[in-house]
Design brief:
Keywords: GTP-binding, Magnesium, Metal-binding, Nucleotide-binding. This protein has 219 residues and is α/β, with parallel strands linked by helices. It has helices at 26-34, 99-115, 132-135, 147-153, 186-189, 204-215, and strands at 13-20, 50-58, 61-68, 85-91, 121-126, 167-172. Strand 4, helix 2 and strand 5 (121-126) form a beta-alpha-beta unit. The protein binds guanosine-5'-triphosphate and magnesium ion.
Length: 219
């Protein structure tokens, strides 16, 4: 047996889940990672079960990427096993002045974080409307979910669970991004934990996927 065992195990494949509540932008993101420009601005067609794609992302790395429907988050747990990285998306618009949506998004994020304590996770706060953060009131009940809010309400409470596990959080507006080519390890160079990125408008999604890959362990 010995080495033969390895022939059944694809060292170059990485299983990634895209999670988040309905309409947070998961399928749009998946399309963009695929390089499909039509992902942007299309009508929302809810994903009933999941979309699964194999995407070659670096020379030797293929992502086995699962975009799970957001309507039934209790089903996500069935996909946790064997996952090596997670992208969690939050709709920054619908959660802005809707406490219930905000709480649901965060509760599901916590479930995901606790259920996947050993793998890297990226949290996208997907703005949709670029100016929402500037327009939002900073009163406590109306604060948008941003890095600071997540830190106070989520990450600081998770220190023991995810102490050594990289976690990245940042705002996106998928409208603005064009997927072009991979950019090296920009994010790695800046350090990992709770990194806040403020950077030009292009390629950040690939940077983040790269970051995820660099921090994923083979199964
Ligand atoms: N303007 C804008 N629209 C976006 C952005 N991200 C997603 N959308 C739109 O938001 C809607 C929902 O996006 P989807 O990607 O289908 O959402 P989803 O998370 O896959 O939703 P479910 O499959 O129901 O779980 C679509 O109409 C997208 O075009 C964004 O960054 N900007
Ligand atoms: Mg979808």
């Amino acid at each position: 047996m010995g080495n033969n065992h390895n022939k059944y195990f694809n060292q170059n494949k990485r299983k990634v889940l895209i999670l988040g509540l309905s309409s947070s932008g998961k399928t749009t993101l998946l399309r963009m990672i695929k390089g499909d420009e039509k992902g942007k601005g299309s009508l929302h067609t809810p994903t009933d079960m999941f979309n699964n794609e194999q995407i070659k992302i670096k020379k030797n790395i293929e992502l086995d990427i699962w975009d799970l429907g957001g309507k039934l988050p209790h089903l996500w747990v069935h996909h946790f096993k064997g996952s090596q990285g997670i992208i969690y998306m939050i709709d920054g618009v619908s959660t802005l002045n809707n406490d219930q949506k905000k709480q649901s998004a965060i509760q599901e994020l916590l479930n995901v974080l606790v259920g996947n304590a050993n793998i890297p996770i990226i949290v996208f706060i997907n703005n949709k409307n670029r100016n929402f953060a500037e327009n939002s009131s900073k009163q406590s009940d109306q604060r948008c979910i941003d890095e600071e809010w997540l830190k106070d309400n989520v990450f600081d409470k998770l220190d023991n669970i995810r102490k050594y596990i990289p976690l990245l959080q940042f705002n996106t507006n998928l409208d603005n991004y064009k997927i072009k080519i991979l950019i090296g390890n920009l994010i790695m160079e800046k350090g990992l934990d709770q990194l806040q990125i403020s950077k030009g408008e292009t390629n950040i999604i690939y940077d983040c996927v790269n970051y995820l890959i660099d921090n994923m362990k083979p199964l």
